[in-house]
C-alpha cells in the first residue's frame, strides 16, 4: 500500500477510535439505567430487574392466594425472574455490540473469567501470561 493509502487508513482508524471512545460515556450511562419488567404467563407475578439482572421489585397479584400451591408459586416467581435476567443480558449485549466483541461480553456476563483471561492472554501475549 502506498504511503497516502496508509495515511488514509490510519486516519479512518483514528476516527473510529474517537467515535468509540466518545460513545463509552453514553454506553456506561445506558448500562447503569437498564431496567426490565417481566410478568409471569398468567400475569400474577411481576418482577423488575436492574442493570446487573438483580431483582429490584417483586409484585404478587392478590389472586395468588386462591391457589395455596406454594411450590407452583415459587416456580412461577423463579421462572419470571430468570426470564427478566435473560432480557437484561440481551439488552447489555445489544448496547455493548458496537464497542466489544459479543463473545467477550457474554463471557463477562456468564462470570467465566477463565475464558476471558485466556482470550486476553492469547490476544496480547500469545498465550503464556496467565498460566
UniProtKB/TrEMBL annotation:
Signal peptide location: none
Keywords per UniProt: DNA-binding
GO MF annotations in UniProt: DNA binding
Domain of life: Bacteria
Name of the featured protein: Conserved DNA-binding protein YbaB
Organism: Cryptosporangium aurantiacum
